[in-house]
Amino acid sequence: MTTTAQSSPIPAIILFGSPGSGKGTQARLLQNCLRGPHISTGDMLRSHIQAGDSIGNQAQALIKSGRLVPDEMVNELVKQRLQDSDCQAGIILDGYPRTTNQAQVLLGFMQSFGYQAAVVYLMVDYEVIVARLSGRRQCPVCGTLYNMKTNPPKVPGICDLEGAKLVTREDDRESVIRERLNQYEVQTRPLLDFFRQAGVPMLEIKAADASPEEISQEICRSLHSAGLMLTTNNGSR
Hints:
CATH superfamily of the domain at 10-124 and 181-225: P-loop containing nucleotide triphosphate hydrolases
CATH architecture of the domain at 10-124 and 181-225: 3-Layer(aba) Sandwich
Largest sheet: 5 strands, parallel
Order of helices and strands: EHEHHHEHEHEEHHEH
């Protein structure tokens, strides 16, 4: 491992918000104005779960009960990912950090590897989140996500692509959702104060009513205006 040394910092956009606030969707859309990978700790953990390895088995048991995986496990996954060559143009972090300990470790990574952190805080009411997530269904064959209210399948309960019966993911059950929100409030929401005190630039975005595309455009404009979006490719200003 070597410390990154370069003339200008690499932009590191930290998408911040409670479970169900749209971080994953915005991370994908933001790639329209930042050339860099979407790094999702949730996706990384799910890949380990699918592989059935020791990390996956530990993570699955915790997720089913609505708890968070240990900081040490997640920190190490992120550390390794940040050193990959595709991160040199910038990164979009989704679902990390979730605790003050993770945030402190992340800022250390930022300094060591030459990144400039900026927080984008997606604000959504909790009751909207519960309704949004508890209405989600997933195809067990192709993984396509549906929402019974906003994006239902053509045939109720059946995947449009595979014809398979849709299922509710363990972490989309209402009891698990509310436990995740409780965990967020206790452990993760204080990160807002931590980042402010650390001097990390922060943008607060209302993310409940506008379309995902409109929210993404607002984020890109705000980042560019603040001088935080160093690489654009869609003309956002």
